[in-house]
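Structure (tokenized):
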């Protein structure tokens, strides 16, 4: 808990003054509000004794001044609280976003995307609201309780002991409620992850859902996750609902007991107790209202903080997570060339995994060489190339680029020299130019055109109404799969990398365009090392060497002709594709 609070407290940086001034002005406001009933009692007693009007006016002016003072302190505390809360939220949101940006794929796999979404939305909102309540209401409520109780003793003596007895009983009841509710909220927020996962899968796979007419299935899956969240909140709210009747019982009991004992005191003393003044007795009830109202505010704080504790822990877990990929103490900032070496490499995605994704990989690739990679689904082709730009680190062995261990490089330097077009092509909302300039922010329009011609993307871009200024929807939903692939290839080429990795990134283009892209690579970037993962033999048959993967191991390496003659797996794939039309796209 202490570690969590320390970590979240760092987000107050830059807004410390406002965070401190908020409780300062709240304290002043509470003091004034507790003085007002005392002055009011004196005014009532003065009127009761038929004193002169000057005294009455004096107390009246004091009350007006105190009211204005309370108003000013309340307004200032509200202003500083709003500023501090907004600043805290800004810093926390920034820290969360930057932390996730620094995560490796392994870190993201650990949390899962739906869970991260929940932590950055629902959990974040809970913590923001809790911060606001802590620096304002959590300060106001206990101070009001303490000052009101003190003033009650000052004004009415023994009658104030009634509140001393009620407050601990009420506090015990509230503590019991919180103790019961906290475990329920912990379970509920974990269910939120399942709810977000259902929504994310349904939205991302909406075309598949509609193609297979599975809307009813997805609706039921969402309903199940939603119902689990609802049941959890309903269970918690049933317990939290006891807050209100508990407070009402305490409030009414307090008023009843004060009235009862005050009446008995007056009767037993034959009216002598009235010498204390009716104002004192009436204001004792006011202080009782203030005390019990502060307890109601505390119950509201307990409810919110109870919900936010689990959210705060989940957010802190993200903030304290260390990326599995870090720069060395003395990183290398220059990649000599595009040569790649795998020296007895093995890899698994999780330390708890029983089986390696890659085993005993030894491979040496010369700078400028074109390497094709073929293998069945699940043969770990993608896992192999992801080790090159350090998207993951090898579990055993060494991966080298330019003769230097990739773990010795500055990560940004290494990735600037390795362009990778992943299996899932991602375009961002913005114009084609803006998407392409992810590869090189300073690229000129002429260079964009040249690179797009190299990737065979210029032909369809020129046919668009706005050309290179055409707006791309989020995820590239307004362009075809083949067009997305060509834009992603062009974006990667703009980095002018020493190593270019194409992970099945021409599967959506026809064989003619595929051949044109490969020919352009040979002619325009001969010095760039090219690794091409493909399902089609025709996409890699003219590579310098072809790697056949099977079960996370290298089954064979050779040219197209050598593998046809000596490798059964390669020959079977080749013959099956030729029987079905040769270059049919399996993707």
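Design, position by position:
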């Amino acid at each position: 808990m202490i570690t969590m609070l320390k970590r979240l407290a760092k987000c107050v940086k830059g807004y410390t003054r406002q965070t401190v001034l908020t409780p300062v002005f709240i304290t002043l406001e509470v003091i004034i509000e507790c003085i007002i009933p005392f002055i009011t009692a004196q005014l009532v007693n003065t009127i009761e004794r038929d004193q002169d009007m000057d005294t009455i006016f004096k107390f009246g002016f004091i009350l007006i001044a105190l009211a204005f003072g309370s108003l000013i302190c309340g307004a200032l505390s509200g202003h500083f609280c709003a500023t501090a809360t907004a600043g805290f939220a800004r810093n926390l949101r920034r820290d969360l976003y930057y932390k996730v940006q620094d995560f490796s794929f392994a870190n993201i796999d650990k949390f899962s995307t739906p869970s991260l979404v929940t932590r950055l939305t629902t959990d974040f909102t809970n913590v923001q609201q809790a911060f606001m309540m802590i620096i304002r209401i959590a300060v106001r409520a206990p101070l009001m309780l303490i000052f009101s109780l003190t003033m009650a003793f000052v004004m009415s003596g023994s009658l104030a002991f009634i509140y001393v007895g009620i407050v601990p009983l009420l506090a015990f009841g509230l503590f019991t409620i919180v103790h019961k509710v906290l475990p329920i909220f912990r379970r509920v927020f974990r269910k939120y992850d399942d709810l977000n996962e259902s929504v994310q899968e349904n939205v991302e796979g909406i075309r598949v859902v509609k193609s297979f007419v599975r809307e009813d299935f997805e609706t039921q899956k969402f309903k199940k996750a939603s119902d689990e969240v609802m049941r959890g909140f309903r269970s918690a709210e049933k317990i939290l609902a006891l807050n209100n009747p508990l407070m009402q019982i305490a409030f009414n009991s307090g008023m009843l007991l004060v009235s009862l004992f005050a009446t008995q005191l007056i009767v037993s003393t034959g009216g002598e107790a009235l010498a204390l003044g009716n104002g004192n007795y009436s204001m004792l009830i006011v202080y009782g209202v203030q005390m019990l109202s502060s307890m109601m505010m505390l119950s509201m704080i307990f409810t919110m903080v109870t919900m936010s504790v689990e959210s705060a822990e989940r957010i802190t877990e993200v903030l304290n997570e260390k990326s599995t990929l870090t720069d060395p103490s003395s990183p290398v900032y220059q990649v000599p060339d595009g040569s790649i070496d795998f020296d007895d490499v093995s890899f698994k995605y999780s330390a708890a995994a029983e089986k390696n994704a890659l085993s005993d990989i030894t491979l040496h690739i010369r700078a400028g060489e074109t390497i094709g990679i073929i293998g069945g689904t699940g043969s770990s082709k993608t896992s192999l190339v992801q080790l090159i730009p350090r998207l993951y680190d090898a579990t055993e062995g060494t991966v080298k680029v330019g003769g230097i261990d990739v773990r010795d490089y500055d990560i940004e330097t290494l990735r600037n020299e390795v362009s990778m077009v992943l299996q899932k092509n991602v375009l961002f909302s913005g114009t084609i130019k803006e998407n392409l300039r992810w590869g090189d922010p300073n690229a000129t329009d002429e260079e964009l055109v040249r690179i797009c011609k190299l990737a065979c993307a210029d032909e369809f871009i020129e046919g668009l109404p706005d050309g290179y200024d055409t707006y791309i929807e989020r995820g590239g939903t307004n362009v075809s799969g083949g067009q997305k692939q060509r834009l992603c290839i062009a974006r990667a080429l703009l980095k002018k990398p020493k190593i270019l990795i194409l992970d099945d990134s021409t599967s959506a283009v026809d064989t003619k365009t595929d051949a044109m892209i490969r020919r352009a690579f040979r002619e325009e970037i001969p010095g760039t090392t090219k690794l091409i993962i493909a399902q089609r033999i025709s996409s890699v048959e003219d590579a310098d060497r072809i790697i056949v993967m099977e079960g996370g191991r290298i089954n064979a390496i050779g040219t197209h002709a050598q593998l046809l003659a000596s490798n059964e797996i390669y020959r079977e794939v080749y013959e099956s594709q030729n029987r079905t039309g040769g270059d049919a796209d399996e993707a």
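Reviewer-requested clarification: The chain has three domains: 2-320, 338-417+499-581, 423-496. The longest strand covers residues 340-347.
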